[in-house]
Amino acid sequence: MTQLFVIMGGNMGRNKSELRFDGAETLDVFLLLPEADAGIEGVGVGGGEERGVPDRAGRAVAVPGARPAVRRLDSKSVAVVKAQAAPRRSRGRSPRQHKRVKYSTVEIRAQETSKGGVKYEAILAEPAVQTPPKRNTSPLRAPKSTVPLEEKLKAAEERRLSFEANKIAQLAAQMEKIEIIAKKREEEVSKRKEALDKKIGNAVEKREAHITSVKEKAKEQVEKQAEKAEILAKKSEEEASKKKEALEKKIESALEKREAHINSVKEKVKDHLKKGEETRQNLDKQADEMNQALQESLKKAAEQREDNIKKMLERLQERDRRAELVRQNKERLSSSFSDNQQETASSG
């Protein structure tokens, strides 16, 4: 009889289930169960290493520090279990039938028993019998021949001589081919050399003719350019003389204008200096007057300040005198009040 204990958690909780069997073997399963209608996939078995379970996006989530998903199932059978959680059922409906997922070694039955809870049943199959691999057999040795050693050596010598004769014949044939190819190459080289000499002679003749024609054309162009240069030189000399005369006239007129401008500027400077001297004298007078007025205002301000200080001192003295009178009155009143209290106390 197989028993399955499932501890269900809240939203996306990590739950631990134990499958207990009669054979004192324990099957430990770690499941990651989301809310009712989420799928469960990737529960691993065997190994002894950490196994992962998928999240909502289908990615594997590692369970750190957990034991193997299925341990000590048996020594030869290892299985991967996939289960689909039943969707949430509404009230008033009959529970859905369980779904069966069959594998070669493990069968899982899942059935929704209550809201948000799933019951699993695990059925283990018989372990598969594996035949041991066959051993590789070494090949048998060939039987020893009865042919004597001298005959073998003689046959080997004959084979060697025939091989050398064949090799010499092949080399002779190759040498004949090489000589034929060398003769053909020499003939082709001589033909190409003759054709090249002819081409070079024709090219030299054409080059000399071209050089002579180019020299004649260059001589004609040089003569034409010399004539043009003489004509341009005469024209440039005439233009230079005309420009020189015009420039001398401009320089003379500019010098006259410059002297006249200098004289007018000198007169303006003299007038400006005179006006500046007059303005300086006027400014000196105004400065003296302002200094006198400032001294008088300073004297008046000092006198007024002394008067204000005296008035403030008198006010302070008057305030101190009044404060002294008030203090004396308070003392009198306090003494009279204390006397009255003593009298009332004695009379009472």
From TrEMBL:
GO annotation terms (biological process): microtubule depolymerization; neuron projection development; regulation of microtubule polymerization or depolymerization
SUPFAM superfamilies given in the database record: Stathmin
Biased composition (Polar residues): 334-348
Segments of skewed composition (Basic residues): 88-102
GO terms of molecular function: tubulin binding
Cellular component annotations (GO), alphabetically ordered: cytoplasm; neuron projection
Region (Disordered): 81-103, 267-288, 326-348
PANTHER family named among the record's database cross-references: STATHMIN, STATHMIN, ISOFORM D
Name of the featured protein: Stathmin-3
